[in-house]
Task: structure prediction
Amino acid sequence: MRKGEKITTNIDWPLFGVYLVLMLLGLTTVYSTAYNPDHPNLFDFSQKYGKQVVWLLVSLFLGLLVLLIDADIYRKFATPIYLFTLALLVIVLFMPAKFGARAWLGIGSLGIQPAEFAKIGTALLLAKYISGVNIKLQNVQTVIISNSIILIPMVLILLQPDAGTFVVYTSFLFVMYREGLSYDPLILKIINLIPGIKFKETWVGSHFIPIMFAVVLLCVATLLYSGETITFGFLPNFKIPGVVGVLLGLVTIAGVFLFLSRFIGSRRDRKNALFIVIIGLVLSTSISLGVNGLFKSLAPHQKERIELFLGLRKDDDGDDYNRNRAMAAVGSGGFLGKGYNKASVSSVESNHVPESETDFIFCPFAEEWGFLGAFILVCLYMFMLFRIIMIAERQKSRFIRIYAYTVAMILFYHFMVNIGMDIGFAPVIGIPLPFFSYGGSSMMSFSMFVFVLLKLDSQRSYILQ
Amino acid sequence: MNFDTRKYVIIAFILIVGVIYSIRLLFMQVIDDSWALRAQEIAEKRKEISPPRGAVYDRNGRKIVSNRTYYNLMMKESEIVNLDTVAFAKLIGWDVKRVKARFIEIVKGEGKYHNRHTNKTTSNYQKVRWYPFIKEMTLDEIANIAAHLGEFKGFKEEVTSMRSYTYANGANIFGYLSEVYKEEIDADHFYKSGNNMGRAGIERFYEKDLRGQKGIKYIVTSALNNDVGSYMNGKYDTVAKQGPNLNLGIDIQLQEYGEKLMKGKRGCIVAIEPATGEILALVSAPSFDPNLLVGKRKITKNYPKLARDPDKPLYPRPLAANYSPGSIFKLLQSLIALQEGVITPEFGFGCNKGMVGCHDHPSAGNLYDGIKFSCNPYFYAVTKKVLQQGKSKNNFIDAEQGLTLWAKYMKSFGLGYKFDTDITGLTSGLIPNSAYYDKWYGHHRWAFSTIRSISIGQGEVLLTPLQMANVGALIANRGWFYTPHFVKSIGKKGPLPQFKKKNITMVSAKHFDAIIEGMRRVVYVDGGTGRQARSADYIVCGKTGTVENKPKKDHAVFLAFAPMVKPKISIVVFIENAGFGGTWSAPIASLMIEKYLKGHITDTVKEKRMLDFNVYGTKQP
Result:
């Protein structure tokens, strides 16, 4: 900290505010969900909510430490931090398994998940590395090194195994994309092997990441609804095939973008946007139809395998149990919800939704507060994400910008997958809802993410690299 | 190269997800209710609470059918730990083998779940559910067991309600309850497996009233099927409502006395209040204690015994048995003849024992004496005048016309059809019409001489004792009657509408005087057949009957009402194979009348003689 400055100087209060609101909402939801009538005290440390209070206080304390330390160290010590977290990831593989995974480090019920903290290490090192690279001169080596920074912890995490966190690591690819780092050098290397071709750049190569994600999301969505018929409770005899529903969704999204494109300033950009939207709609429609057709033409056992992978088995009480219960809990909330502490499907006591205080915590929240609460929560996360992107874009330092983007994308992933599995849009992958789910490791690591960002941002006028 | 515009791609991604998720949430939570229904299916259980059945009172406000608390010994396998089978068997007084067999029975049978939609029965036994191990134990039976249940985890007692009868009488009036069958559950969704339903008598007829309204409690259940509290603090719960009380016209003490008098005899007594049509007593002999058929355990034990009994105690004779009415039928023949104008009360006919046998008595110079002597030839003559009125020259056509008219009269007396009333198991009796005889003899191939035995209540004519008693009531009323019925009022609603409708017979009131005078003479004039029914305190009008039942002994019938002015009771006593009506049925009828009108019996000698009389001879049932 520089002389004459208080730690509150230049802190981004909106981000800190929304962080605090989410933490407190999360705590109240844990209290309501895990409520034990024999131990009604919120500060009863034998209960999950009591422990959550401790985690919250510890997180805030860690945050305070972060704010007290000069932000320079994160850039300087990015490599040691990364290596330290990698070491933890290796050590954890030799620990006894808990819940079928070697993910916990510690004794008894007190333990931390190194995978949560490894994300910070990876984010810092990736930010440091990319900020030092001249993108214009990016080559195969840059692509390989930057990808290796991500891939090494990914592999270690997959060995635990922790599929959820593994998937979350792909969020770093978006950050690379934002910074202009792409797979283009690799693709060019291969394409230019063909005699007579000498590309300097390919469009697909430079936009490979978002395209890949869009295609993957579209395929998953199409497959999720491929075999289904969409019915409406309020229109009993009205049924549409699932794939038509997906196409309608695509048209709706295109419509939203067309509407938004009217606010684009220059006429040329407007034209371009219109062009992109139309091309995007045509392409995604054909992909969706293609995937649907392909899936339908598959042999039953192949279909089954894909369905299993997506958590799509139709047996409501069997393989798809968790998701079905979770969706029932969310759907039963209604507009205003059942009221605080009145969740009947997803309370820990009734236990229909498993892990309702950790991975499925959105269920009790949506059941108790209804659409109104759930929508406000979605808005809070949106606000937080856009605020972080705003913070990122105001940095002069590429290091901070890249770091900020990793924070945004990791939070976005957790938000998207966690809520997605409660509303039938994502396969059931156990990753926590940031600041909400019960659990020390995730709460501490997400807090660290935010506080490091707050600290870096508060010193943005000094850190220029 | 500037990559700043790429932030829009990322913003777009985030925005799309946010918007889609919001729309999806709106759809799932607000617009489409299928997920809410699924949640109900998963977490909410409707627990139905069956109210106790409505109670039944007699005409004097005595509670005759009520509910008593019984106890089921329940078991839940998941909570049973290290069951000491030997100690447990000892506690419930069973042997170990039976305990084990019962476990297997429960696992295989009790948990059966019948799916209405697929019509499949599957085993739905769940270890985490309570099942009755022993059903319907009395307080005494459970008391010893309950004290030690703490030692046996996974067992508990549960309260249930069953019928209890204050008097050991009226079994054929009340009927009984038993568990519903699969078909009944399908037909009426009110019932769930294990529920009881009225099987006979008023329990069956008033089933929908007595069963009350089920209460519904919504409870939240956990994934392990445990109750974890009420849903929405009981906002949608409804309270169970007990069925309304039934107030019967039955006088339970008269019923009890009637059953006592009929011990050792086969037959029945039916008593009706003429002014209202309310049944005062309906005795079917032999009878049984209604408490024998309470609960599954007792039904299983006692029902087969009752069903196999050669004297058919389960058969409700007063309603279902069709008897030839015998001489009491002569009263009706006279009424028709008077109304038709084919005779006057002064009509005399010499007893020539020509067409039919008769007992020795002086010739009847008028109708009163005809009734008093119950002269068979006299009533042949009377009935012939009705049936063969000479309106057609052809004897056969004349008889056909006469019979058609006669049958119409009989129908107006409540004969030949089933009453529209609250009595289950009624039969209609038989009043033959011309079509009936055409079938036997051919069209226009029969005349009075062919069918003459109906004149004296023999032959094809059949009546139920209830119809006979109703004949007494319509004579007492001088030409009208209310449909005989049990229930005076359902709760505060009053009787069913059809019981408030007067049935007017085709005979006008003035013609009844002669008949009633004749009936008085039967009892009070020397030489009358019903002298045994005499009372000094009020005038009893009666008519004896002795129904031929060859080759067995005759049935003894006595029909009476009393007092002669403003009659309060009409009664028929029908004793199978007892012989002459005046000897056995008349005294029993008189005892019943006295019991009803005075409340006590003065002639205890007569009472003892009647109690001792046994149609089985020395063999006591």
